[in-house]
Amino acid sequence: MNLSDLKGVGPSRLAQLRAMGISSLRDLLYFLPVRYEDQQTVTPIRDAWSSPVMIRGTVAEKPKIAYFHGISRVTARIQDGTGTMPLCWFNEPWMVQQLPVGAPVMLYGRLQVKANQRQMQNPKQVTEPGWMPVYRPVSGVPAKTLRGMIREALGAAEEICPETLPKRFCDRYRLVGRQEALRQAHFPESPERLKEALRRLRFEEILMYLVGVALQREDVQPGFPMEIPPEMPERFWAALVFQPTGAQRRVLREIAADLTRDRAMSRLVQGDVGCGKTALAFGAIYLAGQNGFQSAMMAPTEILARQHYENAAAQLEPLGISCRLLTGSTRARERREILKALADGSCAAVFGTHALISEGVNYRKLGLVITDEQHRFGVRQRSRLQEKGVLSQRETAPHVLVMSATPIPRTLALILYGDLDLSVVDELPPGRQPVKTRLVPPEKREGMYRFLRGQIAKGQQAYIVCPLVEDSEALDEVRSAKALYQELTARELKDLRVGLTWGRQKSEEKAETLRAFAAGETDVLIATTVIEVGVNVPNATVMIIENAERFGLSQLHQLRGRVGRGKLESWCFLLSESGEKLRVLCETNDGFEVARKDLEQRGPGELTGTRQSGEALPGLTAEGGGTLLLDEAARAVRELESDPLLEREWVRIRRLADAYVRENNLKVAKN
User: Which of 353, 232, 360 is nearest to 302 (CA)?
Assistant: First the structure.
């Protein structure tokens, strides 16, 4: 049975399906709903105040139709014994004939609530109550037609999608069969059956991804073996003005061991904000430089790249490592000088943004590639930097060091970062005081500003972060950076020096605003999340975050990490009317614990922001099993690898996983 054998699928519709990536019956069955609508649970009208909602009643009055500038508007009312609800349909004039007075009707849709008045807008008429799947739109294929095609294909599910997992796995991990999972995913009989189905499909997807990672671990690229005697890392630490932590010493030893091998290093260094990852990157650059190799360190923003360069110039140039900065704003003459220095090898370390992978940038002997805040780069961007070294050194690849200040649970790290070896910097430098975090309801805003002014009077500085740059009608309850700047400079902070910055601000203006704040020329910096990474001002001791509920926990933890970078007592205030999910931030400063809670609340795709073009993460959500499902899938892979009785199954699943990775064009993030 083929896709073209389905009822109503001719050449034109076949082309429309293929345009959505549906080229086979298997693709069709795995074209899963993006969400589900509960068109089963009826809410009495008197209790219907949140969207979406399902209402059952009778038509209370004859519908009316009016036209405004060619747009039709049908209005009516529904009643159910507990109250009445006004209804409205735009551009659906036929609803006038479908709603005779007194007729029973079931409607599902969203409510518009204004000034304590409600109205259902463009609700759907429901004829068969249940859990309704909602798919991504397919041009030229109505949703009802698509559901009919899927129902027909499910009749041959056993032939199209035979079972992939051993029965003992399904029993052990409480997984329903593959065909049953697909049936319930498309036409759920109940919320419980739907949850079981999605859990099975997600488990299999994670398993195939993990096995694909295991296969790629076997594909080792040759690297540049370096000579690093034990005293060389210690010489680096001895040259610094601070004592490294035990964790820093351990991780640099791990990096040094990798650099001595004849295979290319692929190592992720992750740790909490302020744990000293940058010093480890500089240590790796020093080790490479002592062996005559160049290093390139790429950061996601010019601010962060410049900060790395300035610190590196102060710490590495006295050790004989010449450093340069290359960004999009580097002037043409200086750029030509830097390119020449990279090509002839006189520049040992270059720091920059995407400019490092642009046309015309060639290296004489690139031996080490470092990406900072790597989750902000796509896989292709990171790979292009590594390829600069491959091109200049033929088949041998540079060593790769990846840095991330987004702490994530170890199992999730193994999934996200493929065959990277993992180093965790789990110790903060001595003297750091934990940031005191408090939830602040709107009515206590004035007291918070009084506290802020008191800190400024002591000579300290503060950040105020907003989720939006400008006011939005769609989000009228959310405060914007520009509006708050105007409000505060006219009132609560009118006699203070206040700066304003955001992501798309002109780079020169942004750089000057951040420079002024870092230099202490500004008391308060109002910003969007542009300051999340790469802003290091030890004198800043107050962080205020507006509409904190709109951020993920891990992002809030990152923002909180902008204060408490010196030895002064520091504070983070989370402004929110509803702070239940935010309480974990008040209870702990441990980024790994915060990340674990974030994973439970939101699922890993949102947590890490990894859904970029060219790379993917299995479609796991917290509701589908969260960290437990990740752990179970990882345990299943280990069992498949090690149990001799499962050797035949392991060979089969390896073949399926290889096909899965290739068919889905998944990129396992080696760098």
Answer: 353
